[in-house]
# Entry
Amino acid sequence: MKRGKKYTDKAKLIERAHQYDANEAIDLVQKTSVAKFDETVEAHIRLGVDSRHADQQVRGAVVLPHGTGRTVRVVVIAKGEKAAEAEAAGADFVGAEELISKIQNENWFDFDVMIATPDMMALIGRIGRVLGPKGLMPNPRAGTVTQDVVKAIEEIKAGKIEYRLDRMNIIHVPIGKVSFGTEKLQDNFQTLMAAVIKAKPSAAKGTYLRSVVLASTMGPGVKVNAAKLTE
# Structure
């Protein structure tokens, strides 16, 4: 892939083979941001697990202390009192069968997170095949299947993110915006890494953190010294 001159010049600031301390990596990500818009800073974490095995899955959620810097659109699938609570708590969309049908028949996905009460999961199961690949399926471990819809909405709006493995055993998550500055990005990154390390499956063998790379949306990747993150 051919890169522009601005990207190429910024990339020269990074020693490609070097693994940086987390604070140095975050500084470099900010310095090598190339876009005119406020880029998202993303963490890409390769783990020494095999996601094909149920006992080596790594999935959870964590509230970043400074949020992600983006507005998250929340849909809540609930009825009655819980639907009313969700509306009062600031959910962007609230409903039941009508929203399921809208997703199923109109390919409607104008939301970022779906929360559901447990009694609605049988209904949501009808569209599990389309929600799953998009990472939108509610999950108790992520706190998105719950009776406490108010708490779930508040946490997500405050900066709660879900992390999960892709098929290559890599977690991809945002940790904030370039404009956050070093201190806030460090806080968010440390909070994320503490959660991922704590979630290590007992069945995982060998090196758990295989590699950690930080990058802005349009900028080059910066390798983090993963070994130091577990010290």
